[in-house]
Each structure stands twice: as C-alpha cells, then as structure tokens.
Amino acid sequence: MHITQGTFSYLPDLTDDEIRKQIQYALDNGWPCSVEFTDDPHPRNVYWEMWGLPMFDLEDAAGVLAEVNACRKAKPEHYIRLNAYDASYGKQTTALSFIVQRPSEEPGFRLDRQEWHDRTIRYTLHPYVADQPHGERYNGHK
Amino acid sequence: MTPPDRLPGSKIPASRMNFGMSRPGGNSAGPESPEEAEKKETLAPDAKIDLAKERAETGIDDVFSALDSELVGLAPVKNRIREIAALLLVDRARAQFGLSTSRPSLHMCFTGSPGTGKTTVAMRMADLLYRLGYLRRGHLVSATRDDLVGQYVGHTAPKTKEVLKRAMGGVLFIDEAYYLYREDNERDYGQETIEILLQVMENQREDLVVILAGYKDRMDSFFVSNPGMSSRIAHHIDFPDYTLDELDDIGKLMIRAEGYQFSPEAEKTFREYLDRRMKQPRFANARSVRNAIERARLRHASRLMGAEQTVGKDELTTLLPEDFRGSRVFANSDSSADSDDPLASDDSLAD
Ligand SMILES: Nc1ncnc2c1ncn2[C@@H]1O[C@H](COP(=O)(O)OP(=O)(O)OP(=O)(O)O)[C@@H](O)[C@H]1O
Ligand SMILES: [Mg+2]
Predict the structure, then answer these.
(1) Domains plus CATH for chain A?
(2) I need a surface site. Which of A59, A78, A140, B27 has the fewest CB within 10 A?
(3) pTM for the whole structure
C-alpha cells in the first residue's frame, strides 16, 4: 500500500529535480532542512530517526541533496523524509515535510478487531512489517 | 505487490504512483527540467551570436566597473579575471551551437602578501561566476584550518563536509590553506580534509569553486607536498605588493568613501607616512592604509573635541597633517611628532 503523508501527500512522488527545487524553495525562505528515516510506517509514528542534525546556513540545495542521497545509500529500503523548519515563529515549526524515498515493496496494513465490553469492537491498523524486528523489515534491510 | 487501480480517496491513478520516485542507484542524473531542455535548443550552423550583447545581458560589466573603481592597481589580476570571463562567455556561445564543451575547472589559488586584496577579489569573483551562470548562488564561504579540521578521530570529515555543504553553489575560500598540511606529522587530521577537498574539487565542479589563498612561498611548498591539489587548480593568480603611488591612491579612495578629505599639506604628509610605513615591519599593504586612516580619524575626532570651537562641515571632513604626524611611524626621526599623543605611544599598534 502506497503510504502518503506530509506536504505533497496528494501528489505523485517527486522526482529528484522536483525535490531539489523544493529544497531550494525552503532555503530561499531561510528554512533549515533535515533528513529523517524510519522503517515503522505507521501514520501515527511521528518520531522518525534523524539522519544527522538539521542543516543550518546553507545557500544551495546541493548540500541537502547530498545528505538525502547519503541516507538513501545507507538505508535503501527505509522511508526517508525531508523536513524544513521555519524558526520565524519563535518555536520549532515544520514548514515543509515530504517523503523522498520509500521501500521497494510496501505490504500495507492489517485491520485488527478487538472484542470489547458490551459487544463493542475496537479497530486498529497494524503494519505487516511491524511483525519483524527493527532492521529486518522490508527485505531484511538494515 | 500490485497497487489497487486507485487508492481510496485519491484522484491519482495508481499507475502514476511510482512515477519519478527515485530508487537508490537509479535516476541519479535526473531528467532535465523543461526549461533547461528548451534553453539548449541548438542554433543553425550559419547563425551568428552577438557576443557583446550576450556579455551585456549577463551584467558582468557591473562587476568589472566595480573592480576598476574600487580596486586600485592589480592589473595582472584584473586581466586574468577578464580572460576567465571571456572563456565562459565563449563557452556559452559554443553551447548554443551544440558544440560540446567540458565545464572548465575554475579552482584557483590566490597568492600574495597580507592586505593585497585577495579576499576582496574572491568575493568579486564569486559574483562574476554567478552572473556568468557558472555558479548557482554566488556567495562566498570563508574558512581556515580551524573550521575544517577536527580535534579527534572521526571529527574532521563531518566538519569539512559541513563547510562544503554551506559553500555549495558558491565559492569556498580557504585562507592560509597551507596550514591544512603539517609536514612534521603525517597523521595530522588536516590530511583528511585535503583528501575530501580533492574529491569534491574533482567530482563536484558544478557545485562549487574552491579558492585557496596565502603567502606565495608557503603556498608553493604546500603544492610540492600535495601534488594532487596543485593539479586540480587551474588558475594561480599572484597579487603583487602595491607601489607607493598605488597605496596613495588606495588611501584617497578610502577616505573619499568614508566622507573625508585631505588638506593639501595632509596629502603630502600621508604620502610620507606611507613611504615610511612600507619600510617597517608588519606592513600589510592596503590593510595598513585602512588602519592608518582609522587612526587618523581617531586623532581628528580628539582634536576637534579638544579645540572647544564650533565646527562646520569643512572641519568635520578635513584631515590635517597632525592627524598623521601623531603616528608612531613618525616617531624618533621627526621633531613634530607629538609624544603626548596617547595613540603614538601604544606599542601594540604598528600603524
Ligand atoms: N587594490 C585595492 N584598492 C582599494 N582597496 C583595497 C585594494 N586592495 C585591498 N584593499 C582593501 O584593503 C583591505 C584588505 O584587503 P583584503 O582583506 O582583500 O586583503 P587580503 O589579501 O585578503 O589580506 P590577508 O592575506 O591578510 O587576508 C580591504 O579593506 C580592501 O577593501
Ligand atoms: Mg584575506
């Protein structure tokens, strides 16, 4: 199942050139960028792992793109997203966040039903990959 | 898995879903954007290009007129910059005919004594290369050994890469580059920085230009021990020391820019000052001129405050001989030096 989230969730995945232009747009607005990755695709998982620190004082998208590519190389079967932060509000504010890589296969989610009191049923989504431990999900890639 | 034809709630056919997603290893070159493809439409073989018009469109003439009006002398440097600009312009014209031109390497080395304008020219160069479309951004990031080399194992590479990322799209200016290499210690972390730089200078030419700067003799011996670096630098530009006349002109330019003027006698005193200062230790060319003027402004201000008179525009803008005579440079040999001048007795100030 094709997971979408973030700023451009309604669009097809961005090409590298489009990603570069979005990064440049963020930098032109003075928004530092950061790269994060995860192999836990649950939509409520907001804590992705940081690929290095946010990058400050960059002028050109090439520097950010280099980190995106380094992360892709090290984590070829993870979800990777790019965030841009707008500090002008005086607190950490995400101005942009979008997926820049996804695993080659996305098995999707199982719907779990839990019997509750008074014949109530509670529903929850369970990512199939979450049955594997971290590092062994998505074709066993670290 | 085969995706469903349409995802719930999505208007986008699933067949487009994987469109463009860059897979690791693939797509690294990336498709050209439509604008870029359009620009590269080749001209007919018998077409003509007006180079002067092309040149005017880039706006590089502003850079040259700024170079000429703000920087005195430096004829060889300015000539070399013009040559580089001509090369890039002709390359652009050739590209319009579809003639393949490899991107020229423009890493440079600026050698010269302190205060000969290396940093200033590097900034102008960044602007020029931006206007000629060689650099995407045209800013200058200045770095020395401390910014690039780490203190412990594993510290250097991230530090160097951090600076490189900031310099992407512009110029990385490394002042006193020879400090990156320590002859006496082959396990020095500076070696790691040099290796990363070499790689980037070779493989990421479209992302940044590296300019190394420093004293000529030390730069030369740095290149002897780092032949890889030497071979990657296309332009070695030497900044000559300024002559007395040039220093004089630089001084006049600076006081005009600051909204001051010399009295006719002060003009002579200033020249005499320069003549003496040049022969003294720690002379730093144009920077010494700037320092001399800063100190003269201090004396000028104290003089006006001490005089307890009303002052007009003339008094506020005119520097007199005594504003220079107070300097240590005139000490011992000149009876008119005011030994009570607090600025004259300050040993830490050579100017
Ligand atoms: N030819 C010139 N005409 C006018 N001003 C100049 C000229 N050359 C240098 N200056 C001025 O002198 C000062 C020092 O110049 P700059 O910092 O570029 O020298 P530098 O060669 O980088 O010195 P260092 O090697 O010590 O770093 C600057 O304020 C600059 O504006
Ligand atoms: Mg300098």
Answers:
(1) 16-101 (3.30.190.10)
(2) A140
(3) 0.79
Q: Tokens representing B242?
A: 């300024």
Report CA-CA distances (Å) from B265 to B133, B278, B281, B314, B321: 49, 20, 26, 15, 6
Please name the amino acid found at residue B268.
K
ipTM of the complex: 0.78
Contact B21, A13 (CB under 8 A): yes
The answer to whether B174 touches B110, Cβ cutoff 8 Å, is no
List of chain A residues whose C-beta atoms are within 8 Å of the C-beta of residue B165: 55, 58, 62-64, 66-67
Would strands A121-127 and A109-115 be described as parallel, antiparallel, or unpaired?
antiparallel
Do B170 and B135 meet the contact criterion of CB atoms below 8 Å apart?
yes
Take residue B130 and report the two structure tokens written for it. 């931006």
Q: How far is A118 from chain B (nearest CA, A)?
A: 31
How many Å apart are CA B143 and CA B176, to the nearest integer?
Answer: 9
Q: Which residues contact B31 (CB under 8 A, 6 or more apart)?
A: A15, A17
- DSSP letters spanning B125-138: HHHHHHHTTSSSS-
Structure tokens at B293: 């003027």
Quick one: tokens of A57?
A: 């004082």
Window A:53-82, CB contacts with B under 8 Å = 55, 57-64, 66-67, 69, 72-73, 76
pLDDT by residue for chain B (351 residues), tens only, comes to 444 444 444 444 444 444 444 444 444 444 444 444 445 578 888 888 888 888 888 888 888 898 888 899 999 999 999 999 999 999 888 888 888 778 889 999 999 999 999 999 999 999 999 999 999 999 999 999 999 999 999 999 999 999 999 999 999 999 999 999 988 887 889 999 999 999 999 999 899 999 999 999 999 999 999 999 999 999 999 999 999 999 999 999 999 999 999 999 999 999 999 999 999 988 999 999 999 999 999 999 999 998 888 889 999 999 999 999 988 888 765 444 443 444 444 434 555
Report which of B28, B73, B31, B9 is spatially closest to residue B244, judged by C-alpha positions: B73
